């Protein structure tokens, strides 16, 4: 066994967790190598010293300063939502409810819907699609806000600026590609495949 | 506040904003929290800041503590340890090796030791603790958790989010580093004496 390998085993040896074969090998090495023996004894002394370390005295007045710091810090208020459903689910549910309404209108509507009714169904589906996209953005906003708040709460003030910059960059990217606004009277096709399918089915039934 | 007031007696008052109860509780644990913070940071000023942050955190999360979680002191020290570990993680990239003057340590009672043996022990204690503070945080933190906090390797690995083998290797390297400094110092003393 060389010196380096012997050193790697010192802690396991001192804690009695070394395998019997390795222990015997290390002890043979220690018996024949004075420098490793000295180092092994020194490691043992270090461990004993650390484990017997007395408690340190706190600086005078620290307890009072710490107590005051806590009393002056803003209290954390836990906001409990009235509904147990997460916000993204609520937004998604609203979107799907609109889709269902549009589909239902198409299905149970008059045998030969007027052009105005067809337009209503198309617009409902388009609005639903737009709502879903806005919901995604809202969820992303809330998540980013949470990151900024938790960073500030953890006291990493230097990181808060970075998180705010991240958010600004995101807003700029959004400006470059704004969500599609449903235009009045436009018979736009929804982008969501589920919405498109509902829309197609509904329209086919009345054609 | 009576001296025999327990933590459990103080907690309801602390939660409802009784400042005297809170001050008593903080007074009771400041030394322990500061000791932990100082072992982690190696700097008195940084340890003071960390101690204050720990008590702010404890005050803000008092409502989460339940008697079923175990003794309040153990819960508080776990909060303190986790905060110190977070502090270590945040500063991992920024901190540099320290070169502060040695902090005055309380030494263990000497009893009826021989004066030379006592001097040697004091010298060794000083060297080990000064050496501990000058270790890089990646070595010092697992060593503090192991030898000063008495945590098992598995828990250290979990708290530092490091593989078990890495933790064991870092602890061994930290001990070796301190032992080598001790031997060098002894060699210097022998050289001076001859």
Describe the structure in your own words:
The complex is a heterodimer of chains A (207) and B (194). Helix content of chain A is 71%, strand content 0%. Chain A is mostly helical and 207 residues long. Chain A has 2 domains: 3-51, no CATH class; 87-206. In chain A, helix 6 (87-108) packs antiparallel against helix 7 (115-153). The model of chain A is unreliable at 184-190 and 202-207 (pLDDT under 50). Chain B is mainly α and 194 residues long. At the A-B interface, helix 2, helix 4 and helix 5 of A face helix 2, helix 3, helix 5, helix 6 and helix 8 of B.
Question: What's this entry about, in short?
Answer:
The complex is a heterodimer of chains A (207) and B (194). Chain A has 207 residues and is mainly alpha-helical.
Please give the largest β-sheet of chain A: none
Q: Average pLDDT across residues of chain A?
A: 77
Q: Percent range for helical residues of chain A?
A: over 70%
Summed up, the domain count of chain A is 2
What is the CA–CA distance across the termini of chain B?
Answer: 60 Å
Oligomeric state of the chains present here:
heterodimer
- Give the terminus-to-terminus CA distance of chain A: 89 Å
Can you count the helices of chain A? 9
Number of strands of chain B: 0
> For this structure, what is the CATH homologous superfamily of the largest domain in chain B?
RNA polymerase sigma factor, region 2, helix turn helix motif
> What average pLDDT do the residues of chain B reach?
81
């Amino acid at each position: 066994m060389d010196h380096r390998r012997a050193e790697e085993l010192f802690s396991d040896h001192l804690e009695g967790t070394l395998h019997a074969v390795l222990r015997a090998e290390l002890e043979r090495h220690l018996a024949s190598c004075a420098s490793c023996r000295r180092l092994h004894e020194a490691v043992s002394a270090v461990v004993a010293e650390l484990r017997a370390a007395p408690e340190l005295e706190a600086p005078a007045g620290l307890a009072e300063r710490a107590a005051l710091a806590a009393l002056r810090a803003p209290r954390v208020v836990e906001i409990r939502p009235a509904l147990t459903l997460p916000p993204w689910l609520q937004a998604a549910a609203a979107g799907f409810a609109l889709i269902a309404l549009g589909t239902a209108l198409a299905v149970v509507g008059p045998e030969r819907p007027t052009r105005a009714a067809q337009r209503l169904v198309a617009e409902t589906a388009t609005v639903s699609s737009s709502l879903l996209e806005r919901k995604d953005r809202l969820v992303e906003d809330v998540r980013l806000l949470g990151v900024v708040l938790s960073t500030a709460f953890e006291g990493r003030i230097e990181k808060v600026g970075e998180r705010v910059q991240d958010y600004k960059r995101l807003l700029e990217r959004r400006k470059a590609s704004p969500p599609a606004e449903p235009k009045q009277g436009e018979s736009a096709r929804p982008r969501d495949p589920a919405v498109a399918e509902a829309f197609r089915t509904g329209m086919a039934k009345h054609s | 506040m009576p001296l025999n007031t327990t933590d459990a007696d103080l907690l309801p008052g602390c939660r409802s904003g009784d400042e005297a109860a809170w001050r008593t509780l903080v007074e009771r644990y400041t030394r322990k929290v500061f000791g932990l913070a100082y072992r982690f940071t190696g700097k008195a000023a940084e340890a003071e800041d960390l101690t204050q942050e720990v008590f702010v955190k404890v005050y803000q999360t008092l409502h989460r503590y339940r008697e079923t979680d175990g003794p309040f002191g153990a819960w508080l020290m776990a909060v303190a340890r986790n905060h110190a570990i977070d502090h270590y993680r945040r500063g991992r990239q920024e901190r540099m090796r320290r070169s502060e003057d040695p902090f005055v340590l309380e030494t263990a009672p000497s009893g009826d030791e021989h004066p030379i043996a006592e001097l040697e022990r004091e010298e060794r204690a000083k060297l080990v603790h000064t050496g501990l503070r000058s270790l890089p945080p990646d070595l010092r933190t697992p060593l503090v958790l192991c030898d000063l906090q008495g945590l098992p390797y598995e828990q250290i690995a979990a708290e530092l989010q490091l593989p078990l083998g890495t933790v064991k290797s870092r602890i061994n390297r930290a001990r070796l580093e301190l032992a080598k400094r001790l031997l060098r110092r002894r060699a210097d003393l022998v050289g001076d004496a001859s």
